Amino acid sequence: MDIFDKYALASGRHDRVLEVGSDPFNLRMEEIYSATEARVNGRRTILVGTNNYLGITFDPACTEAAIDAIRKYGTGTTGSRIANGTYSAHLALEEVLSRFLKRRSTMVFPTGYQANLGILAGLAGASDTIFLDADSHASIYDGSRLSGATLVRFRHNDPKDLDKRLTRPGTQGGCKLIVVEGIYSMLGDRAPLAEFAEVKREHGAYLLVDEAHSLGVLGDHGRGLAEEQGVEDDADFVVGTFSKSLGAVGGFGASNHPKFDVLRFCSRPYMFTASSSPSNVASVLVAVRRMAEQPELRLRLWDNARALHDGLSNLGLEIISPESPVIAIRMKDEETAIHAWNQLLENGIYVNLALPPGTPNGACLLRCSVSAAHTGEQIEEILARFAAMAAELNERSEKTLAAHATP
Ligand code: PMP
Q1: With a 6 A CB cut-off, is 112 part of the ligand 1 pocket?
Q2: Which among 21, 106, 138, 249 is most buried, taking Cβ atoms within 10 Å?
Q3: How far, in Å, is the centroid of ligand 1 from the Cα of 330?
Q4: In the chain, what are the domains?
């Protein structure tokens, strides 16, 4: 027996994907020209799948701050936050985030994934129950498992189903923690947060909102879905990432709970890993200011999101997202999705290919994420390439139908 035998099925599927063209799970970005363009397979390519919502990865103030931090503080901290890895910059970033989020305290983590591990595993223990949306991100599932709490999944975006599960016997001991996301990463839909907040209040539960895809995107100040829906006081804990709107790497957990900071010496994923590099922290500090002081970035993002959503809808593609910076297009099956993804790439458009089991309801998706940095011409170009792809798919399916028609 080989230790990798358990992956035989996954390997077989991957081999079939490779037969169609480029490897979607191992794509090489050979050169990055800007927030929206890169060289991929030797070709200038428009990026429409990078979650770079505010398009600030090349903001001169962010890049300068990062370079300056490397010169002053070196390339890495070489230590965890509870040893030698807390620099003034980490504390400054936590303060700036707390002020922006209007939270008493913020903990910074090296990634958004780790923020979920650290906050969930820190908050919940074996006697507690975590209620999580069935479409939750892997980091929410993993953090919940790590906590040792009882896990209860409720139907995606369904407060009634949550209410039912909260009432069931067997979940009455310990504390109850509900976990939802702001904008869901695959379909771009939003949690009905005001309704979830009502359920949470009725049951005396805690509510955690992962605003990974909604920070800088929703709300009058960009604080996310809880701000947009006017329920920030009900969101006891907020988790977010620096790898999307803030254009860097890292994550955070924030709260008004007076005892929140106990997690700094009780949450293992926070304690037992090296802290974020000085350059990352420095660029995020500037990026948070950009997000706060330049609401026009958010407005431009939404103009672009609407333009792409409308344009793609007009092509007759099956768009399963509401108007959102995340736009998912359902393909009829895996083979068609892989083929369409390759066709777009060969024509200079990069989107995400999302296949089961990583997708809700086993859907095969092309997933776009829009940026404030996309120009009008780029949106036109993206739409033109999608139109060509849709036409080619139609032609293919007509040929297949003709081939199977009985004479
Ligand atoms: N939460 C959600 C909802 C996400 O979509 C992601 C990343 N896609 C993460 C957490 C993890 O963030 P990061 O990539 O910064 O680790």
Answers
A1: yes
A2: 106
A3: 22
A4: 8-47+295-405 (3.90.1150.10), 60-293 (3.40.640.10)
